[in-house]
């Protein structure tokens, strides 16, 4: 998820316009929160106040033909959807610990897996440890936030950084929900300029490719 080679943004944008996801069909991007009586701008602000967006890049902002609870299950439970998605990304040696915590609205789990790397100058694969933390708002609130911290091991400058992602799920109606995903690169210590450039290039390449498959 951190390193890899991706195609140009123009080709991706064209693919997104022409492609309909076979497992979860996205709605027209022109639809907005005001279309649905069950959510308002105040509701959107409430979710942002609950846990604000990260300062990085917005990679997904789409509406799907499933309810908020079902969308959360598809993305964060060991269901065929998630298994198929990880296989599509060519992740191997996948292990998922069960969710645990003091309440259903605050739980954590750890995932480990191996990712392929398409960088000719580096390793061909790398081990990943991903920690996910769920912040639920309850069934009536119609949404949840999942924070993910991803540490990739066995790559250049692995001690300098990790990637962070925030999944915001907001229920719009009984069978419709919006998913927003923000990502950012966080540094444990500041690398020199050339190293930082390589980290940024390879990390964003892998991150964008990962979420391209998801969307």
UniProtKB/TrEMBL annotation:
<feature type="domain" description="VASt">
    <location>
        <begin position="55"/>
        <end position="215"/>
    </location>
</feature>
<feature type="region of interest" description="Disordered">
    <location>
        <begin position="1"/>
        <end position="22"/>
    </location>
</feature>
<feature type="compositionally biased region" description="Basic and acidic residues">
    <location>
        <begin position="10"/>
        <end position="20"/>
    </location>
</feature>
<keyword id="KW-0472">Membrane</keyword>
<dbReference type="InterPro" id="IPR051482">
    <property type="entry name" value="Cholesterol_transport"/>
</dbReference>
<protein>
    <submittedName>
        <fullName>Protein Aster-A</fullName>
    </submittedName>
</protein>
<dbReference type="InterPro" id="IPR031968">
    <property type="entry name" value="VASt"/>
</dbReference>
<dbReference type="Pfam" id="PF16016">
    <property type="entry name" value="VASt"/>
</dbReference>
